[in-house]
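Researcher: I'm preparing a figure for a lab meeting and need a structural model of a single chain. I don't have an experimental structure, so a prediction will have to do for now. The sequence is pasted below. Please return the structure as C-alpha cells so I can convert it later.
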Amino acid sequence: MKHISAVLFLSLLVSACHSQKSNSSKIKTNALLWRISGNGLTKPSYLFGTIHMLCEDDAVLSDSLKIAISRCDDVYLEVQMDNLFEMIGAMGQMKMNGDTTLSDLLSKEDYEKVKNYFEQKQSMIPFSMLETFKPILAASTLEESSLPCGTPVAMEQLIMQEAKSHEKDIKGLETMAYQAGILDSIPYTLQAKQLVNYIDSVQKGVDETKEFNQLLDAYKKEDLNKLEELTKESDIGMSRYTDILLYNRNRNWVKKLKTLLPGKSLVIAVGAGHLPGDQGVINLLRKAGYTVNPIPNKKAGLKVI
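Model: Understood. Here is the structure written out cell by cell.
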C-alpha cells in the first residue's frame, strides 16, 4: 500500500493511490496553482493542488497563493476541516461497520503480525482502537510515522491558517461522512490485505522513505505529470474502485463549482492527484467551458494574479 496518508482524518489521498488512465490531457506546464476564468465569470478563481502530508520544513505557502487567498471571497477544501461538530460526528465513521475488527478479516498469523507491528510503532492511537478502523485509515497512521521528519504537516492546515488570518470562510466540497462512506465501498478484506502487504514490504527492507521522497520531489517541482507517473507505479490492487474513489469525486466537484464560481472569487485546494489527466479537475473544468491557466507558484507570478 503506497502513498496512502490521511494526516487530517479523512482527507483521503486516494488521489495519490489511483492513477488516471488517459494520457490525452498531459499538463504542459509545471504548476500547482491555476487561474480559472472565462465562461461568463466576472471574477477569477484559483485551483491549488495540495499534498496531505509533508515535512514541516517543506510546508510553505507561496506568495502567489497567499495573495489569491487574501483577495478571494471563500476558500474551499475537500472537506470543511474547521467544523468541530462535523469532525466529532465523523469520528465514528472511521470504524468498520457491524463491529468488524481486523481479527475478523485476517488469519491468526497475519493478525498477530499487524498487531505486533503497530505496537512496536507505539502509535498515539492504541491498537485496540485502531483494529476497529477501516484498514486504509489504520494504514495511514503507519505512513505518517514513516516520514523522515519529526513533525508532519498538511498543506491544508497552512491554507486554513492563512484564510483565517484574512477572515475568509472555509468550506468543503464534500463532507467527511461522505468520504468515510466511500471507504465502505471497498471490501474490508481487500483493505486488510493491503495493510498486511504494506507491513510485509517494510519488513523485507523496502525503503518507503525513498518513495515518499520521490513523491515529495515531484510535488516541490510542481510536476503533476510526474506525480501521476509515480502513482501509476503503486501496486495497491484497487484499480477497480478508481471511479468511486477519484473520478466520481472530480466530476461531483466540477458540477458543484459550476454553481459556486459565478459572482465570486474562490480558492479551491484539493489533493494534487485530482488535477491531471483526462478526468482530472483541470481538464473537466476546461471541458465545461472555463479557461484554466497555470500561475507560477512563487514571487515571479504575482503580476499575473
